[in-house]
């Protein structure tokens, strides 16, 4: 083939040499607009895993790269005068210029033609000149090729919030260093790493509004560098900061990161009578934020995969090769970009986390991408994790007012106690409210006794009863439980008394009103579908049909309706107190009545209960204030909200923070952070722990405790969430349906033997722990890993 690579960065050079190595008869030309040794970066970072990929692709190139690397294992986090070190991370740094020189030399050895100082104004002219069969567009972040064929590639470019500048210094850094400094203008952070014997990259980053307040936009380059040197003087030890972007003037050095995603990576042109593909590679196709060091990694791995596709599927034709390339790489790139987005957003919002103490701040920073979890960290640096667990444990027991257990106080974070008002939970795992549609005339019966009782015996700190309705016409289905008749109170008291007598768990009641989502069938008979007969009238914030053309139409609630409903909630709260519940939750989520007032998708009122967010929250807050007044002072009330409607024009996470603040001002103790189910038009983005970012934002911006919920299904998830301060409790739903003793089982899988079990079940505890330990030992013997490493691998799935 005749191949031209437009762009002489890592992607183009590496693809050229891999294809030439694969078949020396290929005629490959790499065209670069800069001079041979020009580069405007400092050092680049690879993980040990990336190095393994390079060795497998071309050992000779990898050997040269490895000989030029500066290797380190530690990450140092500097915050509020403290330094926290975590080891075992396995990173390597190399100068960008050195990396390019190695790739250029290897290309020349293999016979790849390198053309420098040539600007590609028209890719088709070059394709014609070289009679190309394949054009690789690897012309970087500001790709002209991508822009020219935007209708084919369909790029999505999201310009982010921070300004950053790439600088260098002669100050040696023995670890990958993150430094956070507060100035009179706001927070600045530095990312520093050494990449050769005497030079380190030093990236300075800050939100644009802080950058503007500091006046850096009006500074020339020397002034801006002097500002950075002063801000980070304690880390530089008198060394200067340097810029190699001398072609830029003043504040132009400070850029905003563009997150680029392309739907398609291939465009076809008719050139010299044949169809020639123009294939995106590297930053032209996608970007990943520098905070996880993946830009060059992605470029090289693009080259590896496309070369591999030609090797495996070349005989099937160009189309098959390129289809395979995009299919494989798009999946992997999306994973990296997702992690990079999480990391990027953490750094964009450093101020959110500055109320944390240094050990927890550092842990939050380390786990920001959600690719690095509690057990991953333990494999890397068991001593660090144990020390941090000890810190978390001592802090949690002190805050809960509970005496520390004897022995080495290093307890998994999810198993530490938590106090809210006078209620102390033995750990951080709660059983979510889960609709069971098994009540009769609103009465919770034997089914609920077994369902809730078994989960209370299964190790969770608290079980939530499903949404319990405050009146007969507040029910979702005829099979939903209620708290509006004397027999309801007695039925619930029986369950509460059993849990209190037989377990050390607490039990919570969630009160709600179905609104426009009421008068429907049980889920397994047709979720959200109206009853075939026996329907009752519905009310909502505004006239509403939940499923257009299918659901009953709810009328807009009148003042009289609201007065009656308020009285119903007050009565139900009083009865919940009589039944002995430890905790109350007000359901203001998922499109039910109170949620319908909050969301602009369902509230179109023009009175004092509509319009602004404050007005839309007025009625839910009225209900909250009314139940808080009759609920025991020493017992908490949480509020469940939909933190994201997942529909344009609906509630956003920004709104959720404001909603949380309003409820906090009213006296709410905690926000239970769910999302969606407000509109059938929703398009949620699912994934593990997908709603945890809402709990994180609300907890750390509104400064109110939160419950995280949604695809949390492993101890590793819960430990990471609690340890990082992303939430105070984790609500587990589906895993508890599959296994009532989920918490006991996960503690055993962690190897935590001090977890209390019901005395009737102790024989099962001993056997489970023996079996799990045997599995770990056998796996370790066969793999050469330690039992701790095996446990971490198992938790990772």
Description:
- With 797 residues, the protein is α/β, with parallel strands linked by helices.
- It has 29 helices and 30 strands.
- The strands form six sheets. Strands 5, 6, 10, 11, 12, 13, 14 and 15 form an eight-stranded mixed beta sheet that branches.
- Helix 24 links the parallel strand 28 and strand 29.
- Helix 14 runs antiparallel to helix 29, helix 23 crosses helix 24 and helix 28 crosses helix 29.
- The radius of gyration is 30 Å and the shape is globular.
In short:
By secondary structure, the chain is an alpha/beta fold.
Helices and strands in order, then pairings?
Elements lengths: L1 E5 L3 H13 L4 E5 L11 E5 H10 L1 H9 L2 E3 L2 E5 L2 E5 L4 E5 H15 L2 E3 L7 H7 L4 E4 L6 H5 L1 H4 L1 E15 L6 E7 L4 E8 L5 E8 H6 L7 H11 L1 H4 L4 E2 L12 E8 L3 E6 L2 E7 L14 H19 L4 H31 L9 H9 L7 H7 L1 H19 L17 E3 L2 E3 L3 E3 L14 H11 L5 E8 L16 H17 L3 E7 L10 H4 L12 E2 L3 E2 L7 E4 L2 H21 L3 E6 L4 H6 L14 H4 L1 H13 L6 E6 L10 H14 L3 E5 L17 H10 L4 E4 L5 H9 L5 E4 L1 H5 L3 H8 L12 H22 L3 H10 L1
Parallel strand pairs: 1-2, 1-9, 2-8, 5-11, 9-17, 20-21, 20-30, 21-22, 22-26, 23-25, 26-27, 27-28, 28-29, 29-30
Antiparallel strand pairs: 3-7, 4-7, 5-6, 10-13, 10-14, 10-15, 11-12, 12-13, 16-17, 18-19, 24-25
């Amino acid at each position: 083939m005749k191949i031209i690579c437009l762009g002489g960065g890592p992607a183009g050079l590496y693809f050229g040499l891999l294809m030439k190595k694969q078949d020396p008869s290929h005629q490959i030309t790499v065209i670069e607009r800069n001079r041979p040794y020009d580069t405007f970066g400092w050092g680049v970072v690879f993980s040990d895993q990336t190095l393994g990929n390079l060795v497998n692709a071309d050992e000779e190139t990898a050997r040269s790269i490895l000989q030029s690397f500066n290797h380190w294992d530690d990450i140092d986090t500097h915050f509020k005068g403290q330094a926290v070190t975590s080891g075992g991370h396995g990173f390597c740094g190399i100068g960008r210029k050195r990396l390019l020189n190695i790739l250029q030399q290897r290309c020349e050895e293999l016979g790849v033609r390198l053309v420098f100082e040539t600007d590609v104004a028209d890719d088709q002219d070059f394709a014609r000149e070289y009679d190309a069969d394949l054009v690789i567009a690897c012309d970087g972040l500001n790709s002209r090729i991508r822009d020219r064929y935007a209708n084919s590639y369909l790029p999505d470019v999201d310009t982010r919030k921070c300004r950053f500048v790439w600088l260098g210094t002669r100050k040696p850094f023995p670890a990958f260093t993150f430094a956070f400094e507060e100035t009179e203008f706001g927070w600045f952070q530095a990312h520093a790493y050494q990449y050769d014997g005497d030079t380190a990259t030093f990236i300075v980053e800050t939100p644009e509004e802080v950058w503007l307040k500091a006046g850096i936009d009006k500074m020339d380059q020397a002034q801006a560098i002097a500002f950075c040197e002063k801000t980070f003087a304690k880390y530089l030890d008198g060394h200067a900061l340097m810029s190699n972007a001398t072609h830029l003037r003043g504040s132009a050095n400070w850029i905003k990161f563009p997150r680029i995603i392309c739907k398609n990576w291939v465009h076809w042109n008719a050139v010299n009578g044949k169809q020639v593909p123009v294939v995106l590679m590297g930053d032209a196709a996608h970007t990943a934020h520098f905070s996880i060091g993946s830009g060059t990694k992605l470029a090289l791995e693009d080259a590896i995969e496309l070369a591999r596709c030609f090797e495996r599927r070349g005989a099937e034709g160009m189309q098959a090769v390129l289809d395979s390339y995009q299919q494989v790489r798009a999946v992997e790139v999306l994973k990296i970009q997702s992690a990079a987005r999480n990391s990027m957003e953490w750094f964009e919002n450093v101020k959110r986390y500055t109320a944390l103490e240094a050990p927890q701040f550092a842990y939050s920073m380390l786990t920001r991408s959600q690719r690095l979890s509690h057990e991953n960290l333990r494999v890397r640096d068991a001593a660090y994790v144990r020390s941090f667990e000890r810190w978390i444990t001592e802090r949690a027991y002190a805050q809960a007012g509970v005496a520390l257990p004897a022995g080495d106080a290093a307890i998994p974070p999810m198993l530490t106690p938590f106090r809210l008002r006078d209620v102390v939970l033995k750990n951080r795992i709660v059983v979510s409210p889960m609709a069971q549609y098994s009540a009769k005339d609103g009465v919770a019966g034997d089914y609920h006794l077994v369902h809730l009782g078994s989960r209370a015996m299964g190790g969770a700190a608290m079980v939530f009863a499903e949404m319990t309705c405050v009146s007969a016409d507040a029910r979702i289905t005829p099979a939903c439980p209620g708290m509006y008749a004397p027999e309801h109170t007695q039925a619930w008291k029986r369950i509460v008394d059993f849990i209190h007598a037989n377990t050390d768990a607490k039990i919570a009641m969630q009160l709600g009103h179905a609104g426009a989502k009421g008068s429907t069938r049980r889920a397994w008979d047709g979720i959200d579908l109206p009853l075939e007969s026996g329907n009752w009238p519905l009310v909502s914030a505004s006239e509403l049909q939940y499923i257009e053309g299918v659901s009953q139409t709810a009328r807009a609630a009148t003042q009289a309706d609201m007065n009656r409903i308020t009285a119903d909630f007050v009565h139900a709260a009083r009865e919940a107190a009589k039944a002995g519940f430890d905790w109350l939750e007000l359901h203001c989520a998922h499109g039910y009545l109170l949620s319908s007032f909050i969301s602009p998708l369902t509230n179109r009122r023009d009175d004092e209960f509509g319009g602004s967010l404050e007005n839309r929250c007025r009625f839910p807050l009225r209900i909250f204030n009314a139940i808080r007044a009759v609920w025991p002072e020493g017992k908490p009330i949480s509020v469940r909200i939909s933190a994201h409607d997942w529909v344009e024009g609906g509630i956003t996470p920004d709104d959720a923070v404001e909603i949380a603040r309003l409820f906090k001002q009213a006296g709410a103790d905690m926000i239970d952070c769910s999302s969606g189910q407000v509109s059938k038009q929703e398009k949620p983005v699912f994934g593990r722990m997908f709603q945890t970012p809402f709990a994180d934002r609300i907890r750390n911006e509104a400064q109110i405790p939160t419950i995280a919920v949604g695809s949390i299904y492993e101890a590793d998830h819960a430990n990471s969430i609690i340890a990082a301060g992303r939430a105070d409790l984790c609500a587990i739903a589906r895993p508890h349906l599959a296994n009532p003793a989920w918490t006991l089982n996960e503690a055993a899988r962690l190897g935590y033997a001090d977890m209390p079990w019901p005395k009737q079940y102790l024989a099962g505890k001993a056997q489970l722990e023996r079996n799990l330990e045997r599995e770990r030992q056998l796996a370790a013997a066969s793999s050469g890993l330690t039992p701790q490493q095996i446990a971490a691998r198992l938790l990772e799935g």
